[in-house]
Write a structure and sequence with these properties.
alpha/beta, 7-stranded mixed β-sheet, binds pyridoxal-5'-phosphate, 13 helices, globular
């Protein structure tokens, strides 16, 4: 059986390091925020090439607090993509704002800046591009439009730890950026986790207050805040794993290259690796109108796959009140109908990659 992701195999390669990291927290007895979290924040900020990182308890919380710190208020409109995990839109909703969806670029599967300008209205205050599958959205045109209309940019970098855009890391490309450390992400905790990164000290200090009940000092609540704190054990694990992230991303890149070589001449569509950057292959998606049959074929050959994501956000029941209908975002809808994610994790062997790719090719020929 080839799993879709294999967290256990990775754990075994770093067992001693994370064991030591966790023991360190147990010995100190400080379990929530504290020194371990602060050290992780410094190390992760420096990894992303920004001044500040604030650890929180999930990527969703990170998006929520970034939007609040950016002063997104009820009635605002925030432009994002529907081709994403629903949390991107949910966080906009938490602020009482309205998600406005633009279509994706059919090659990169990320926000298409051509649709941006016409989506901007008098209540638009922010743009949230998503670096889907580990590849950065094309940020320069997005930033030009944001600047011209005085809009804030918050990157959803939950799938893009370490990805590059024109030599700059995901997380350093907007006013703020949000990461998830859900276990299966490129940098994953042993539980839930997330972070906001930014070069702006004011955003960072507002977010630090909001994640901890709005306290400016213990029991002094200047805002109604949240309990979105990062746990010390997760920070300690993340510190240990951060030192391996580049190696793991390189391994993913090798697997992606092999998949591409095998699948190049097939009838499949693969996302284009855009020349503006280097993706980190959180997901390796392929696209075919024959998706469901191919998924069944792989399943019969003991290969686990995923679908990211089968129903785009604008067609989800939870967002029906926004008034979108089928056909509104044709590229997004095609992608959702055709996408199939192959096994992708650093510890895959090249035999496994070639077995998966050959099974895909055979499945297409049937
Ligand atoms: C994982 C993910 C999130 C949410 O992160 P959680 O840590 O699960 O809350 C948000 N956006 C995208 C694109 C994601 O992949």
């Amino acid at each position: 059986m080839i799993p879709f992701v294999d967290l256990r195999t990775q754990y075994l390669t770093i067992k001693d390091e994370v064991g030591d990291a966790i023991s360190r927290v147990l010995d100190k007895g400080q379990f929530v925020l504290g020194e371990e979290v602060e050290l992780f924040e410094q190390e992760f900020a420096s990894y992303c090439g920004v001044r500040f990182a604030v650890g929180v308890n999930s990527g969703t919380s990170a998006l929520h607090l970034a939007l609040l710190a950016g002063k997104i208020v009820p009635g605002d409109e925030v432009i994002t993509v529907s081709m994403t995990f629903a949390a991107t839109a949910a966080a906009i909703r938490y602020c009482g704002a309205k998600p406005v969806f633009v279509d994706i670029d059919p090659e990169s599967y990320t926000m298409n800046s051509n649709g941006l300008e016409s989506a901007i209205g008098p209540r638009t205050t922010a743009i949230v591009p998503v670096h889907l599958y580990g590849q950065c959205a094309d940020m320069d045109p997005i930033r030009d439009i944001a600047r011209a209309h005085n809009l804030m940019i918050i990157e959803d970098a939950a799938q893009a730890h370490g990805a590059l855009y024109k030599g700059h890391r995901a997380g350093s490309l907007g006013n703020m950026a949000c990461f998830s450390f859900y276990p299966g992400k490129n940098l994953g905790a042993f539980g839930e986790g997330g972070a906001i990164v930014t070069n702006d000290g004011e955003y960072a200090s507002t977010i630090k207050i909001l994640r901890d009940h709005g306290q400016t000092r213990k029991y002094h609540h200047d805002f109604v805040g949240y309990n979105y704190r990062l746990e010390a054990i997760q920070a300690a694990v993340l510190r240990a794993k951060l030192t391996h992230l580049d190696d793991w991303n390189r391994a993913r890149d090798l697997h992606a290259g092999e998949y591409r070589r095998f699948l190049r001449d097939s009838r499949l569509t693969l996302p284009r690796v855009m020349d503006y950057g280097e993706p980190v292959h959180h997901i390796f998606p392929i696209f075919t109108p024959d998706r469901d049959r191919l998924q069944g074929h792989l399943h019969n050959h003991e290969i686990a796959t995923g679908i990211h994501y089968p129903i785009p956000v604008h067609l989800q029941r939870a967002y029906a009140d926004l008034g979108y209908k089928k056909g509104d975002l044709p590229e997004t809808e095609r992608a959702a109908a055709e996408t199939l994610s192959l096994p992708m994790y650093p510890e895959l062997t090249s035999d496994e990659v070639s077995f998966v790719a050959k099974t895909v090719i055979r499945g297409l020929e049937l």
